[in-house]
């Protein structure tokens, strides 16, 4: 009986010491590695390149339209972004990200722009714009290599919605000239695979990085997607931090739908600053 009580007492003391040690270690590690939830509210400041191709009825594909150089859209933007993370169980994590942008400009064309079987001639005054929405969810398995660093691998879904328009005087079939508005829009869920890494340099400083990629044919879409980011987060209060990150998003896919046959190439690259809340 005394032996059993001794074993129980030693086990309780070990559990208390282990819990205290774990709490001490967690206090010495950035909350990004230990807290259950986090939310990042921020602004993305990317340089942008957007190109669309909309094929006509001929077998020869139309030229791709560069919306920055040919149509006069600005090359930089400010985009609101939202990230959410939920660490559940001991080894699993769910993340979600959202950002969206809509742009439009008036311009005088410096060269002909061909959209399906419609030609907007050089020198024409036109209005044009693009819009883009990204919603990403990611389910990951965590691996803890030490108290200060973790990495994970997983899979997810990028929901992408793309659109573009041009309106103005145009030459249509038969050589007639009239005002036209031409537009395309498509949305699709595209699967992706990814890896991420976090390192706590101190209780206040943490480094984080991730890469998502895709290179497959899915339904009416085929091509590649690459989304990479890395940056630092500084804890300024118990549950609050600020971060500065670099983000690169590159999309190059073909589209084969009844209302749009062509291609889209889109690159967003720049800094992302955020306010983080973790608990």
Question: How would a textbook summarize the main sheet?
Answer: 10 strands, antiparallel, barrel
Instruction: Walk across the major sheet and give the strand order.
Output: 1-3-4-7-8-9-10-11-12-13
Our measurement of the CA-to-CA distance between the termini, rounded to an integer number of angstroms, reads 44 Å
Oligomeric state of the chains? single chain
Structural domain tally: 1
Mean pLDDT: 84
CATH architecture: Beta Barrel
Structure annotation, total helices: 1
The CATH C-level name is Mainly Beta
Backbone shape: elongated
Q: Tell me roughly what share of residues is in helical segments.
A: under 10%
| Rg, alpha carbons | 25 Å
Number of strands: 13
Uncertain runs? 1-25
Question: How is this structure best described in words?
Answer:
With 279 residues, this protein is mostly beta strands. It has one domain (2-278): Lipocalin (Beta Barrel), CATH 2.40.128. Helices cover 9% and strands 68% of the residues. It contains one helix and 13 strands; from the N terminus they run H-E-E-E-E-E-E-E-E-E-E-E-E-E. A ten-stranded antiparallel beta barrel has the order 1-3-4-7-8-9-10-11-12-13. A hairpin with a 4-residue loop joins strand 9 (177-200) and strand 10. The longest helix has 26 residues, at 2-27. The radius of gyration is 25 Å and the shape is elongated. The two termini are 44 Å apart. The model is unreliable at 1-25 (pLDDT under 50).
């Amino acid at each position: 009986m005394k032996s059993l009580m001794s074993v129980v007492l030693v086990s309780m003391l070990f559990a208390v010491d282990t819990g205290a040690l774990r709490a001490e270690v967690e206090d010495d590690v950035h909350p990004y590695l230990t807290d259950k939830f986090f939310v990042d509210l921020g602004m993305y400041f990317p340089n942008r390149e957007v190109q669309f191709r909309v094929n006509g009825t001929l077998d020869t594909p139309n030229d791709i339209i560069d919306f920055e150089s040919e149509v006069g859209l600005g090359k930089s933007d400010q985009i609101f972004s939202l990230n959410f993370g939920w660490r559940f169980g001991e080894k699993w994590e769910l993340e979600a990200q959202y950002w969206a942008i809509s742009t439009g400009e008036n311009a005088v064309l410096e060269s002909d722009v061909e959209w399906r079987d419609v030609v907007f001639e050089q020198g024409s005054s036109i209005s044009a714009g693009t819009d883009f929405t990204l919603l990403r969810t990611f389910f990951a398995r965590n691996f803890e290599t030490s108290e200060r660093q973790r990495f994970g691998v997983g899979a997810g879904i990028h929901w992408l919605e793309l659109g573009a328009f041009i309106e103005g005087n145009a030459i249509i079939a038969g050589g007639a000239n009239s005002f036209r508005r031409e537009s395309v829009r498509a949305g699709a869920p595209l699967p992706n695979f990814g890896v991420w890494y976090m390192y706590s340099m101190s209780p206040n400083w943490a480094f984080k990085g991730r890469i998502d990629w895709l290179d497959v044919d899915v339904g009416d879409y085929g091509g590649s997607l690459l989304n990479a980011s890395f940056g630092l987060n500084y804890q300024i209060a118990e549950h609050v931090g600020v971060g500065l990150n670099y983000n690169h998003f590159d999309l190059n896919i073909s589209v084969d739908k009844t209302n749009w046959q062509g291609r889209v190439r889109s690159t967003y690259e720049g800094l992302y600053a955020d306010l983080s809340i973790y608990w």
